[in-house]
Structures are given as C-alpha cells and as structure tokens.
Amino acid sequence: MSKKVTLNIDRDLYQRLERRFKADERGLKQFIINAIRNQLDTSETLNQGKNNDLGEYLQKGSSGSRTYGVKGQGW
C-alpha cells in the first residue's frame, strides 16, 4: 500500500533534481524512493553493528571480574 508524502526542499536541491530528470517524473519518484531506502538500510545496518559491538564488549570480561562489573553496570 503506497502513501503520499509531500517534501519541501530548498531551491538549489530542486534545481539540481530538475536538471537531472527534466520531464521524467517517474524517474524522479523512483530516484527519491531509492535514496530513502538506501539511507534507511545504511542507518539500520550501522545501528545493528553498534548493538553487536556493545554485546561483544560486555562479553569480553569474565563474569566474576571487576572489569565485567564496570562494563556491565556502567560505572
């Protein structure tokens, strides 16, 4: 199911898009959709990597060590 979104962009960006796509409205729409998808995929991948790094960091110390307590409790 598709939804309609209205974007307000600055004049410079609009002119750049206009030069690139001229009268190709379909191409412009597809370009915007792809740009948004790529940005979301990139940010989700980066966020997953950060979560994995934290888990690995916390697992480095043994459960009874001071280091683990500092890591695990945020001291």
Topology:
Elements: H1 11-21, H2 25-60, H3 66-73
Please, could you describe this protein's structure?
The structure is a single chain. The chain is mainly α. It has one domain (11-73). Helix content is 73%, strand content 0%. It has three helices and no strands. The longest helix is centred in the middle third of the chain and has 36 residues, at 25-60. The radius of gyration is 22 Å and the shape is elongated. It starts with 10 loop residues before the first helix and ends with a helix.
Keywords:
3 helices; single chain; elongated; 75 residues; mainly alpha
Outline of this structure?
By secondary structure, the protein is mainly alpha-helical. Helix content is 73%, strand content 0%.
Return the average pLDDT rounded to an integer.
Answer: 79
Counted beta strands: 0
Report the helical percentage.
over 70%
Structural class: mainly alpha
Indicate the overall shape.
elongated
Radius of gyration over C-alpha positions, nearest whole angstrom: 22 Å
Count of helix runs = 3
Number of structurally distinct domains: 1
Measure the end-to-end span.
48 Å
Mind summarizing the main beta sheet?
Answer: none
Low-confidence stretches: none
H/E topology pattern: HHH
